[in-house]
Every structure is written in C-alpha cells, then in structure tokens.
Amino acid sequence: MGDGPPSLWEWFGRNWDTGRADSIRTLLTDHVTMSFVPVVLALVVALPLGLACARWRWLYQPTSGLMNIVYALPSLPVFMLMISVTGLSQTTVIVPLAFYGVAVLIPAVVDGLDSVPDHVRQSAVAVGFTPLRRLLQVELPIAAPVVLAGLRVVAVSSISLVSVGALIGQGGLGGLFTRAYQNPFMPPVIVGIVLIVALALVADGLLVLAQRLLTPWVRARKEAAS
Amino acid sequence: MDDLSFEAPTGEITVLVGPSGCGKTTSLRMINRMIDASEGRILLDGVPVQGIDPPTLRRGIGYVIQQAGLFPHRKIVDNIATVPYLLGWDRKKARARAMELLERVGLDPALAGRYPFQLSGGQQQRVGVARALAADPPVLLMDEPFSAVDPIVRTSLQDELLRLQSELNKTIVFVTHDIDEAIKLGDRVAVLRVGGRLAQLADPKTLLAEPADDFVREFLGHDRGIRRLQFVSTEGLRLRTDLTVPEGSDGGSPEPWLLVVDGDGRPVGWRSAVRPGELEPYGTFVRGRDSMRAALDAALLSPSGCSVAVDEQGKVVGVATRDALDRALSEAVHG
Amino acid sequence: MSWLTAFLGWLGEFFGDGANWTGSDGIPARLLEHLEFSALALALAVLVAVPLGLAIGHTGRGGVLVVVAANLARALPTLGLLVMFVLLLGASSIWPVIIPLVLLAVPPILVNTYEGIKGVDPELRDAAYGMGLRGGQVLGRVLVPVALPLILLGCRLSAIQVVATTTVAAYTGLGGLGRYVIDGFATKDYASVVGGSVLIVLFALFVQVVFALVQRLTVSPGVSRRLTIR
C-alpha cells in the first residue's frame, strides 16, 4: 500500500465480493442467516410455551424465573460452552441466540394474551367459537401487537449479538471487527457497525410493516384517538 | 372561565356543581394554585392567594381528590401524616395525630400499618379525607371525592362527611357533577354552566324552590317538588296521640286504624277495624330530625296512610294523619 | 454424553490446578477485576442515566428522543464499538474500553427510568402537589419510590449488558474473567475456556441475586404488592 491507506469506500468496494469466505458479501449473508434463524426458532418455541403459561397460570412463575436466568447469561461464555456440544459451527451461535429470543418472547406472548379484554373472550365463547378457533381468530390477533413488539426486540438484539460470535470465528459481519483489531485498521469496523445497524433497522422496519398489515385496526384506532 | 365570583363562607360547605366542562374543577384548583388564574383575585381570609408561595399555601389547605391519590409506597398512617411531616412535626406527634384521624373518619386503627392497595375504594377515600385533615387546615377542597365508589359506599361517605363537618366546622369547597350530592351536602350550592359562568348560587332549599332559569331547572331534574320537602322540618307537624293502643288490648275504638305499641312504647304495627286479627306494616320518622320527605315516605309505606313519629330512641311520640301531613305540606309549599 | 465427560474433565483440570488460584492472573484477582470493571461502568452509567431519566420523565421533555435512542442503541454491536474505541484511543489505559461499556449501559437505565417516572399515575402527582410538596419533594418522595421497580429493572438489564461486554472486552486487552476464555481459546487450552466460562456464568447469576436483594430491600411492599390483600 505505497499510496497510503485506502478510503472507506475504496476498501468497501475492494472487499465487497472477493469470492473468498471473508468477503463482506459472504459475511453479510452469514450474518442474516445466523440472526434470522434464531428469531424464527424462538418464535416457534415461545408461542406454544407462552400459550401454555397463559392457560396454566402456575407454569408462568417458574418459567419466567428460568427465562430471566437464561437472559442474564453472557453470550461469549455460552458460545464457548456450546462448542463442546456443537463444535465450531453456526449452530453454536444460533442456539444460544434462539434461547435469548425465547426468554424475551414468552413474556411477550403471555402479556399479549393478557391484553385480550375479558369481555371480548367471553363474547367469543358466547357466540360459539371452539377453543382453537377462538385462539386463532380472536385471541392471537389481539395479542399480535404485543408479540410483534417483543419480536422486534429479539430481531434487533440477535442481529447485533451475532457479531460476538466472531470471537469463535462464527460472527458474520463481526468478523470485520476481529480483522480490524488484528491488523489495526478502521474501515472494516465502520463498515461492520454501519451494516449491522442498517440490517437491524431493515429488520425492525419489516416487522413494523408486518404489524401494520396484520393488525390494521391498531393504527386506525390510534388515528381515531388523535 | 370567565367572570366567576363567589364567596365560600367560613365553616360552611359550598358545593360547585355543573355539567362537565363548566370549569368547576378548574375553579377549585385555582384556590390552592394548582392552576393559576390569569385574571381576577382569589382571597383566603382576605389575603390574595396569588401572593402566597404555592407549596406553603397548599399545606394550609386540605385537598381530597377522586381516586384518593394515596401514595402506594407508604403505609396508611404515613399517608395521613404527609402534611404534618412536611410541616416538620415530630414523627411521633404526626403519627399520633394520624391515628386519631383514622378513628375520626371511621376506620379501624388496625389499618394503620397496611398499604393503600390492601384497602377497599371506600376505605381509601376515607383515608384521603383523613390525610386532608391531618394538619387541621381551616379550609378543605374536595374534587369529586366520592364519585368513584359505588352508591351505597358513597352514601355512607357523604353521611360521614356531614357528621365530621358538624364536629369540625371547616370551610369546605366541594366539587361534584351530581346534583343530589350537591343538595345533600351543600350549605350553599353554586350551579355553574359551561364556560364557568355562575347560573345560581343559593342554599339547596331556595335552589329547589326557585331555580333562577331553565338551565338550573333542567339541571335539577325531575322530582324537584318532592326533593324540596327534605328541607321542610317536621317540628311543626301536628300529631295525634290518641291513636295508639298497647299490645294485647282490644280497645273498641271508632277509629279505622290504631297503632299497636309494645311495653317500651315502640311501634309494632297497625291494626285495622276491619281485620283486627292481623297487624299491618308501618313507617316511622324521627320528629324534628327527619324531614317532611321522610314523614311522607313513612306514610306511603303503610296501608293506614298515616306516618308514625318517633323520638331518637324509637319510641312513638304520635301519629301524623294524612290530614295533618296535607296541612303541613300546603303550608310549607305555599305559605 | 462424551462431551459431558470432557466438560467435567476440563472443569476439574481448571479448578483443580493450584496455580489458577494465585497471582495476578489467578481466579481471585480476575474475579475482582471483572467486578471492578463492571461496577465502575455500571456506576458511571447510573450516574449519567438516572438523573437524566428523572429529569426527562419529570419534565416530560425529550421523551421520544430517549425511546428512539434506546432502540437504536440495541442495534449497536458491542464488539464493533469496543474495537472502534480501542483503535481510536489506543489501549494504554482501561478507559478506551470503559467508555463503550458505559455507552452501552446508559440506554436501558435511561429509558426505564424515564418510562417509570412518566408512568406514575397522574392522580398521584396531583395529590402530591395538592398536599404542598415542592417539585423536588414530589420527585424524591413520591415519583422515585413509585417508579423504583422500573428504575431497578433498567439497572439490572444494564448490569447484564455490562457483565457480558466486560467479558467480550477481554478481546481488546481488558483484564477480568474474559481473559481465561479469550486466551484459552487462542491457545486451545479448553480447560481454561470452560472454567472461565463457568466462572462468568456464575458471576452473572450472582449479580442477578444481588439485584433481587436490592429490589427486595428498597422497593416498598406497597408498590411491589408483595403482601397479600388482607
């Protein structure tokens, strides 16, 4: 590099698609996978567990206690301990992130179901909904905004947390941070932070959009109120 | 709000009543400067409140609001002692005062160590009143204090307030949207219309008898005639004492109805000349204490058409016949 | 279950080694470092965020900004921030690492303090002013005690964040328990990695217990509704 360090853009252009495993494009794809999969897993696990906690109230106290503990575990040591089970793979990052997601989503599902007004539930029973249809057509739609709010938190945290995986070589865009630290050089750090924040904003925006499409009445009500 | 002027006489309950948006709460809050009046003056004992530092002013004025507004993190005794603590009273003295007030508002002293969430709405409201009275302020502001509790509790809270007031003689300004509450509690009632203009300021009796205009008339609602009777005394009601017979006697009287009384002079029931074997129900009122409305109500409860007057101990002092009631009514209403 | 035997073997190796219990890189020293860095970062964050959150919640000004900033902060990658500050400021002292730790710890406390104060029943505020409490007294004697559960929740979330980030910060040269994990991983000393990880997890749980105790001691039973009704 006889003519001085390259500028941010130059560096980005040169490393976007090198075809190697550490090209920014590949890291970005890995990052999306490693943050998207835990969110989906978390939702799939947390929905039935949350429903169970709402249905059998005595389950909620111990479950939420356990989830509080799970949420308090620092990611890096958990990744490290996972290595002995899953080896050095994306799974090692994905599984703990899914657990964090479950810890956030179970209370969201329970709170969401709690937000269904009793008179609405009663009238659904009164007009003859079966329990399953009542859940799918009445309770879950009303609970959706709270659950989606939880999902936004999970998605954004997952996207930012994946980068810690770089310390075990599985961090998606986080790999840019370790690279920048090893041969002290700022552009990868900036690119990494910007891309991760951008990814988080996109995911958040998509979930907001999903919420508008899924629960149009929430917005209509807010507008009517203002 | 515009051009509202009234005086709340010392030692009396002045009620501000009106539809929502009439500025009754705003007027109340101007007195302790929770809201500052942009124009005009509010005098407390002749001193303009605008000149007094708001917190100092408020510590000298009791304040009771709708949901009681008790501090959830403090025990009941400490809630009541809030203002004494602020005034720098000795802790022990403040707590002793709080315990005294707890009993005064009709609550079990065992509640002192509880937290607000452990009390019912009515109990919380009583604590709210006790808290307002803690530093013995001469003036009490009450902003719809009883409107969030159920009707039965509300009635008992109202009675309690009247009882307290008969002991304490505070200058009370009371805001409500409930005209019945206003008439029951107020020594004077100010009816406000939307925009904060005074429609009428009068004692409840005058208000019911001579509403100033259609607005006031409509606001007072129906039953105005009957309700007026609650301000007519039963003191002058002429009673007959020859219509009572002791239990067991068969007395051959020409009267169609006779009131049977027991050995203590308490009423047992009406005996009709037609079916002397059965006793019919009766209604009573306490002479002098209860109003004509109560006397009339008692008459309507009995097939005899007569109302039984008793003393404070429940002993019969006489019988008000329909004629006597009629005469008293026409005197009260027309002359 | 071969991994379990391996796991237990590593644990035994790590905790059984007498050398791991003494000196500047011994367990007690590292534990103390971890505690120091975490406590320092958390204390600084509390000093910044609590007064700011109280002010914003009490005056009601700037609330939207707080919520937006807190959401944005969640998206910031901790490792990236640590590396950026170390590259910018050098690694001559602990401050290049402590600054991002504090930055990441501020938002949860700030937003929960703000929400806590803002969420206090307006009737209560009204009653407090009506009794003649001054602005500061309303805040200190009524709003803070009532909002305390949320304020403490914010601090607890920040503590979780700080303990985790202090671990990650070992990568950029900070001491503390993270050293065992980072150095062990680099030298394929898995006893050190597993032992260090377990220590950090225990430390994190210990912090949770401390917060639960603080909550129990400082929050009025009238607010936490710990007592049964009647």
From TrEMBL, chain A:
Keywords: Membrane, Transmembrane, Transmembrane helix, Transport. Residues 28-207 form the ABC transmembrane type-1 domain. It is found in: Cell membrane; Membrane. One of its GO terms (biological process) is glycine betaine transport. The chain crosses the membrane at residues 35-54, 66-87, 93-113, 142-169, 189-210. It comes from the Bacteria. GO terms for cellular component: plasma membrane. Its main location: membrane. The keyword Amino-acid biosynthesis does not apply. It is a multi-pass membrane protein. Pfam families: BPD_transp_1. Belongs to the binding-protein-dependent transport system permease family. This is ABC transporter permease subunit.
TrEMBL record, chain C:
It is a multi-pass membrane protein. Pfam families: BPD_transp_1. One of its GO terms (cellular component) is plasma membrane. Keywords: Membrane, Transmembrane, Transmembrane helix, Transport. PROSITE patterns: ABC_TM1. Its main location: membrane. GO terms for biological process: glycine betaine transport; transmembrane transport. It comes from the Bacteria. It is found in: Cell membrane; Membrane. Residues 31-211 form the ABC transmembrane type-1 domain. The chain crosses the membrane at residues 40-57, 64-88, 138-171, 191-214. SUPFAM superfamilies: MetI-like (SSF161098). The keyword Membrane applies. Belongs to the binding-protein-dependent transport system permease family. This is ABC transporter permease. It comes from Nonomuraea terrae. The lineage of its organism: Bacteria, Bacillati, Actinomycetota, Actinomycetes, Streptosporangiales.
